[in-house]
Amino acid sequence: MSKCEQCIVREFSSLKALNKDELLKIAECKTSKIIKKGETIFAEGENVNGIFCVKDGICKMTKLSPNGKDQIVKLVTKGELLGQRSMISEEPANLSAVALEDMQVCFIPKTEILGFFDKNNQFSMNVMKTICGDLKLADDHMVNMAQKSVKERLAETLIYLHETFGTNTDKTLKVQLSRDELASMIGTATESCIRLLSDFNKLGLIELVGKKIVLKDIQKLKKLAD
Amino acid sequence: MSKCEQCIVREFSSLKALNKDELLKIAECKTSKIIKKGETIFAEGENVNGIFCVKDGICKMTKLSPNGKDQIVKLVTKGELLGQRSMISEEPANLSAVALEDMQVCFIPKTEILGFFDKNNQFSMNVMKTICGDLKLADDHMVNMAQKSVKERLAETLIYLHETFGTNTDKTLKVQLSRDELASMIGTATESCIRLLSDFNKLGLIELVGKKIVLKDIQKLKKLAD
DNA sequence: CCTCAACTATGATATTTATCATATAAATGT
DNA sequence: ACATTTATATGATAAATATCATAGTTGAGG
């Protein structure tokens, strides 16, 4: 069982407010897991009963729309926590978490976390601030979906992927989403997404290297995204 | 200065966790305001420095999209609190709050509320749960915007307005939004919204009584909304 | 190395939605 | 009460997007 003290999640998440003793308590009760690409960490409607710390890898948070299509609501990467909302609301998960690449995560039971809420105010405030940040992003995201065209949303998403997750040595985007997943992020049909990528390619805004994408003209993309 | 003990906001919001002494402290420092229909309680980008308790009336929370159009993100009505996210995140307001009808609100300074976070855990948990609820709604809303057609969103919104705010004695919807505002809720052009209302009218799903709307066939509307 | 399935790509077409134009109705101020 | 603005309504058209069809490409497993 590895220690939590030097874990990356501790540095970046709400957990940074925990002291040595509290970290030791977590280290004792946590469960480490390896999640393979494509595997589900938890699914919409499931009772989670704790939170997951993402130690490595990226996952997509999705929600099934009544029309049967999956919408990617957001991406979560190393250093972040999963399942906080569900735990606090005492409700089943509203979103599914599915690994986009191999992941290392730790599960910490609800009982442990809820104890910290009572005793460690800084921790509570951190969690609250994180969720408030998520709420702001969700509202902003909603307005984008409602007001922007598919083209604008695609440009914006490409820039987001570039700025947030960076590139490989060959300049291709590090997070490798399928065209289908990219379409599901921007909320459009797969064919429309492919077609627009093709257009962007012809316009010299991006370059398609097999299934991978290179951003060639970020300034123009930003202008396009508004 | 009226007391807070019997106030409707106290019954329905996170404030219900506060004890008599705490309520008295609030009663002393709060400011009551009358907001006329159309007036702004606070605007996007403003520093709010406290929260507003909605004692009576309804307001819209809007965000300006880069294309210059206002998107209505949600409606807030009596018994609810405004400006919590901004206060907790220590950021300017992300949304504007504008009265849809005459309102009574009370302003409670930030300093007072932050004090309760330290001393009253139940209050903290209530606030956290409220924000978690907001986050779930925002995510769901986002998926709707991304995946549903304008027609589906209109049907869904009409049902929401009916179920949440009810009807007048003549069966018309109580919240009276202009066609423009309704369009801004569902994220479409005003003309498209008007046209669809007209279609729904011809199909017998709704009835247009001047600028007001009566839902005639809720079952069919629900089917339409998915 | 080959085969099958899944993914990517593109054309043709239908549907949805936005935009522009114009008309009518309702509200507002003087 | 009238003029002026503002909101609602509808038609015509253009633009955006989805859907259906089909073909090429890639990658995994035998």
From TrEMBL, chains A, B:
Concerning InterPro entries, the annotation shows: cNMP-bd_dom, cNMP-bd_dom_sf, Env_Response_Regulators, HTH_CRP, RmlC-like_jellyroll, WH-like_DNA-bd_sf, WH_DNA-bd_sf
A Gene Ontology cellular-component term: cytosol
Segments forming domain Cyclic nucleotide-binding: 14-110
- Chain ranges of the HTH crp-type domain: 148-219
Signal peptide coordinates: none
Keywords for this protein: DNA-binding, Transcription, Transcription regulation
Instruction: Tell me the Pfam families matching this sequence.
Output: cNMP_binding, HTH_Crp_2
Q: Which CDD domains match?
A: CAP_ED
Q: Name one GO molecular function term.
A: DNA binding
Under SMART domains, the record lists: cNMP (SM00100), HTH_CRP (SM00419)
Organism domain of life: Bacteria
**Designated name of the protein:** Crp/Fnr family transcriptional regulator
Lineage, uppermost ranks: Bacteria, Pseudomonadati, Bacteroidota, Flavobacteriia, Flavobacteriales
